[in-house]
Amino acid sequence: MRVSVISILIIASILYAKQLEQLAYVSVFNDNEDIYLIYEDGTGIKQLTDNPANDWSPEWSPDGKKIVFISERDKNPEVYIMNADGTGLKNLSNSDGNDWDPRWTKNGKVVFLSDRNRYWELFIVEPDGSELKSLLSNWVPEEHMCWSPDGSKIAEESDATGNWEIYVGDSERKSMINITNHPADDYDPCWNRAGTKIAFVSDRDGDEEIFIIEPDGTGLKQVTHNHVDDHAPQWRPNPSK
């Protein structure tokens, strides 16, 4: 049985895509924020949300199969969940207050901040929306600080030099090194699952774009190339599943 050249090319492209890591990020078109997927080489862009309201702050589940995010489609910020392909959309927070900053726990639950009771509380909920309960009151998490998967290093943004730069150092922040060193603003760092790359946002191209860099400051690569703002990059934990 003969295998055509086209078939071979298709198989090769599929195998190549499986070797690439995938990120979720936010892109702004016509003043509207939506969530997209992209491979680390800048290919395979796919729009996951398409709504007149803003959708932002995507966070992957530990198994890489779901994404939580914030949406204003109910006229106020709410925590939503969807499958990695954009299907199965569900409102997890369901309140009249402001619900922010969704994160996943290691055992697959979702935590988020809410002021539904007139002060900030930390809530936790199952990914199906059940068992919603408050954990802590008057609590605000650290922002734009990201630990490596093994917990030994930390990446963070700082404007200590007069503009925002990405710094990497040990988990106790005793030795932080500037790895971006650019007059433009660099921020929103996020480690990949192997701890070998950091995605971040920079406006060095004239608007917000997604970049990738290695923890020692080498291997800088621009991932998105357009004339709108792209931000909030998040690596997919298990792109092969």
SSE blueprint and pairings:
Layout: H1 5-19, E1 22-29, E2 32-39, E3 46-47, E4 55-60, E5 66-71, E6 78-83, E7 90-91, E8 99-104, E9 110-114, E10 121-125, E11 133-137, E12 145-147, E13 153-158, E14 165-170, E15 176-178, E16 186-191, E17 198-202, E18 209-213, E19 221-222, E20 229-235
Antiparallel strand pairs: 1-2, 1-20, 2-3, 4-5, 5-6, 6-7, 8-9, 9-10, 10-11, 12-13, 13-14, 14-15, 16-17, 17-18, 18-19
Summarize the structure in words.
The chain has one helix at residues 5-19; strands at 22-29, 32-39, 46-47, 55-60, 66-71, 78-83, 90-91, 99-104, 110-114, 121-125, 133-137, 145-147, 153-158, 165-170, 176-178, 186-191, 198-202, 209-213, 221-222, 229-235. It folds into two domains: 44-141, 6 Propeller (Neuraminidase); 143-241, Neuraminidase, CATH 2.120.10. It is 6% helix and 42% strand. Residues 139-143 have low confidence and may be disordered. The protein is mostly beta strands. It contains one helix and 20 strands. The strands form five sheets. Strands 3-2-1-20 form a four-stranded antiparallel β-sheet, with no helix packed on it. A four-stranded antiparallel β-sheet has the order 4-5-6-7, with no helix packed on it. Strands 8-9-10-11 form a four-stranded antiparallel β-sheet, with no helix packed on it. A hairpin with a 6-residue loop joins β5 (66-71) and β6 (78-83). The chain is globular.
